[in-house]
Amino acid sequence: METRILGRTKMEVSVLGFGGAEIGFESASLETVDRLLGAALDAGLNVVDTGECYANSEELIGRAASHRREEYFLFSKCGHTGSDFGLEDWQPEMLEKSIDRSLKRLKTDRLDLMQLHSCDAQTLKNGGVIPVLQAARDAGKVRFIGYSGDAQDAKYAVECGAFDTLQTSLNIAEQEPIELTLPLAREKNMGVICKRPIANVAFSYKTFPEPEYPRTYWQRLQELNYPFANRSLDDIVSIALRWTLGAPGVGVAIVGTKNPQRWAKNAAALNAGALPQDEWDAIHARWNEIKKDDWTGQI
Q: Cβ(217)–Cβ(148) under 8 Å?
C-alpha cells in the first residue's frame, strides 16, 4: 500500500487508515474487530484512529490489536466524556484523566497522536486545553498532538501553531478545506488526516436516507449531480476516495467500517492509481459552482 510522510511528524503512514467510530457505535463484536484489523494490518494499513467518545471502540482495538502494537500508528481523541469523570468537557483535569484512560483502554504506554476532538475556537483561545496535551507529550504519553475539527474552528487551530496535525472532513461533498485550511496546514508542515473521505457513502442511497448520518451529504450530492453519479457503487467509491487523496497536502484518509470485506474493497478502490488532474479539477470546479453558503464542515 502506498505510504506518505505525515507532515512534520515524519510518520510514514499508509494512505488508508482505519477509523474506529463505527465499530463502537454499531456494537461490533471482538471477533469481528479482530478479523477486521488483522486483515487490514496484514495488507499494509498502519494507521488506527479512534476516540474516547466512540462507545467501546478503544477497548475493542486494545483487545484485538495491542499484541501487534509495533505495526501501526495509534491515534485517539479527547474532550467529550467529562461526565464519565464527574467533570465538564474540556476541563484540564478531565482531559488528563481521559488521556490516561485511553492509554489503559488501548493497552499501550504511548499514543502516536492525541487530538483535541472538535474543540471550538473559543475554548482553544481560553488557554486551558492545549497545555494538557503538551504536558502529555512532554511526559512521553503521546508523541504528537493534533486537532480534529472543521470550518472556522479548524482554521483557528491551524493558525495558532500549537498542533502537529489537522484531522478534518474532506470529500466530494465536503470541499471547504481546500481553500480554508489545507493551504495554511501545508505552510506550517502539519500532517493532514481526512475523515469522511467517501462522504459517508451517501451516494449508495437512491432515495432520502433513513439513517441520519449520510443525509447532509446525500442532499448536497443531489444538487452537485456529478457526471459519475450513475456509475457502479465500486466506481464511485474509487473516484471519491482517489479525489480526497489527491487533495494537496493530504497524508491519510480514515475510513470506518465494521465489515471485514469492506476494508478489502476500499483498498482495491485505489488500484486505478491517482485520479487524473483534469478529473480532480472538474469535481472541485463543480463544487465551487454549486455550493451554498451553509455548506460548511460537518463535525
A: no
C-beta contacts of 13-16 below 8 A and 24+ residues apart: 13/46, 13/47, 13/73, 13/191, 13/251, 13/252, 14/44, 14/45, 14/46, 14/47, 14/252, 15/245, 15/251, 15/252, 15/253, 15/270, 16/45, 16/47, 16/252, 16/253, 16/255, 16/266, 16/267, 16/270
CATH number at residue 66: 3.20.20.100
Query: How many distinct structural domains can be found in the chain?
Result: 1
Looking only at the bridges linking them, the beta strands covering 142-148 and 111-117 are parallel
Q: What is the pLDDT along the chain (299 residues), one digit of tens a residue?
A: 899 999 999 999 999 999 999 999 989 999 999 999 999 999 899 999 999 999 999 999 999 999 999 999 999 999 998 889 999 999 999 999 999 999 999 999 999 999 999 999 999 999 899 999 999 999 999 999 999 999 999 999 999 999 999 999 999 999 999 999 999 999 999 999 999 999 999 999 999 999 999 999 999 999 999 999 999 999 999 999 999 999 999 999 999 888 877 778 888 889 889 999 999 999 999 999 999 999 998 77
In a domain, 280, yes or no: yes
> What cell does 23 get?
465499530
Distance CA 293, CA 163 (A): 28
Provide the 8-state DSSP code for 174: B
Q: Are 112 and 143 in contact (CB under 8 A)?
A: yes
Alpha-carbon distances of 186 from 47, 177, 189, 278, rounded to whole Å: 21, 12, 5, 22
- Nearest 10 degrees: CA dihedral of 65, 68, 73, 76? 30
Q: By residue range, what is the domain housing residue 141?
A: 12-290
3-state DSSP call for residue 218? helix
d(CA 263, CA 41): 11
Give the Cα separation of 120 and 130 in Å (integer). Answer: 12
Q: Does any domain span residue 225? A: yes
